[in-house]
Amino acid sequence: MCDASDYDVGAVLGQRIKKHFWPIHYASKTINQAEANYTTTEKEMLAVVYAFENFRSYLIMNKSIVYTDHSALKYLFAKKDAKARLLRWIPLL
User: Fold this and answer.
1) What are 43-72's pLDDT values in tens digits?
2) How far apart are CA 37 and CA 47, in angstroms?
3) Where is the Reverse transcriptase RNase H-like domain (predicted)?
4) CA-CA-CA-CA torsion sign (40, 42, 45, 49)
5) Residue 30 confidence class, pLDDT cut points 50, 70, 90
6) Environment class of residue 42 by beta-carbon count within 10 Å: exposed (0-12), middle (13-18) or buried (19+)?
7) Domain extents in the chain
């Protein structure tokens, strides 16, 4: 799970066992002055990228599902005219 606000980004790595979500690891960080100028979509994508960077050792060679409250992110993978910053982040996922 990933989420972003105007002040910080956060993520929870969890495992689903029999319809229950069990948290394994939490991560958060305060955004810097440059990141504070990002659009909402960019901040939400920043949260996803931050989660993948922090939880990389857990995620390598494993199937993963990202839960976010920002539905516009799912369209970025089909979009060809997205901002350069977002296009650079997509291959990291």
Assistant:
1) 888 898 899 899 988 888 888 877 777 766
2) 15
3) 2-92
4) negative
5) very high
6) middle
7) 2-92
